[in-house]
């Protein structure tokens, strides 16, 4: 059995590229350790990691590189979550198997987008897809609901609940969708009323938010953390918010601190989501010198748009500077 997956802050890492469009492992290592040493769990080859632009062999090498880097730096107990969603059940199972062999502890699976319209005509196809891949995968899987990157297909809580009840190898969900907190409430109610869901798993089922923008209400409603791009920019501030939200009680000063961090990170998240991979790489290039280019056909963000994003992030940068020096 792999490393234990716990509630926490999960960081979807961008895949940096050199000018020749090869993976830039030097930048990747620096960024990985910048997050993982603070307790952020690395998520590779996801939406922000340009999974669709990576060859299967590159995905494997990336996971191996992350595992070796973590182990060599005293982080042997840090798990790795890898994007393993493919265009078919067969491909996803192959990707999950390869990820397991490379050292991933869990997989993250978004719905195949090409035939999303057809899948939406009969939701049993969606349920069966997740049941089949969970039953065949050697590592536990997260269900990833992200309509923006799956041709608008938005899984309801009823669909997700059906998958949870039909397989014990689904270890959690990541909800990056409208109405996510309402779905969280419904799914938590199902889990609370069905003890076998957790008793049939090696660790409790995880309900993860896809946006740090609403992490405070998410946690108040029984959620277990976030898989957010914002920790790539503000890892120290993100982890401070996480620490505060997990305290049994907060002093008035801590309540004000948590509210302030949440507000600033929420404002940044609103700007970050539409900017996507190109925006993330522009900002990280300006901040740390990492490669600015996504893989083609995507091109780097134009400077005018990029500088506008930097301006929107200014308050977050100031916040991060406060906590990075503590």
TrEMBL record:
The keyword Lyase applies. Belongs to the DapA family. Pfam families: DHDPS (PF00701). GO terms for molecular function: 4-hydroxy-tetrahydrodipicolinate synthase activity. Pyruvate binds at residue 227. Keywords: Lyase. It comes from Pestalotiopsis fici (strain W106-1 / CGMCC3.15140). It comes from the Eukaryota. The active site is at residues 144, 174. The lineage of its organism: Eukaryota, Fungi, Dikarya, Ascomycota, Pezizomycotina. This is Dihydrodipicolinate synthase. InterPro entries: Aldolase_TIM (IPR013785), DapA-like (IPR002220). The keyword Lyase applies.
């Amino acid at each position: 059995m792999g490393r234990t997956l716990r509630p926490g802050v999960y960081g979807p890492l961008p895949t940096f590229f050199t000018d020749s469009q090869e993976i830039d492992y030097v930048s990747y290592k620096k960024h990985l350790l910048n997050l993982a040493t603070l307790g952020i769990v690395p998520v590779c080859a996801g939406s922000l990691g340009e999974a669709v632009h990576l060859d299967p062999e590159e995905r494997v090498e990336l996971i191996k590189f992350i595992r070796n880097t973590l182990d060599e730096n005293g982080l042997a107990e840090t798990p790795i979550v890898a994007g393993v969603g493919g265009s078919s059940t067969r491909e996803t199972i192959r990707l999950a198997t390869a990820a397991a062999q490379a050292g991933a502890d869990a997989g993250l699976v978004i719905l195949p987008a090409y035939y999303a319209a057809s899948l939406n005509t009969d939701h049993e196809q969606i349920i069966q897809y997740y049941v089949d891949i969970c039953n065949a995968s050697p590592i536990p899987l997260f269900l990833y609901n992200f309509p923006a990157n799956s041709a608008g297909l938005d899984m309801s809580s009823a669909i997700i609940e059906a998958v949870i009840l039909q397989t014990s190898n689904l270890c959690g969900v990541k909800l990056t969708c409208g109405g996510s907190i309402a779905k969280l409430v419904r799914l938590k109610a199902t889990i609370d009323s069905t003890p076998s869901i957790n008793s049939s798993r090696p660790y409790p089922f995880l309900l993860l938010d896809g946006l740090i923008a609403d992490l405070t209400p998410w946690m108040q409603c029984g959620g277990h953390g976030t898989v957010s791009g914002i920790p790539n920019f503000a890892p120290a501030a993100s982890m401070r918010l996480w620490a505060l939200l997990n305290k049994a009680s907060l002093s008035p000063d801590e309540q004000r601190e948590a509210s302030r961090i949440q507000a600033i990170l929420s404002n940044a998240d609103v700007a970050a989501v539409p900017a996507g991979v190109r925006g993330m790489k522009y900002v990280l290039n300006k901040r740390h010198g990492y490669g600015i280019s996504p893989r083609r056909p995507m091109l780097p963000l134009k400077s005018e748009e990029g500088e506008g994003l930097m301006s929107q992030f200014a308050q977050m940068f100031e916040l991060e500077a406060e906590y990075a020096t503590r």
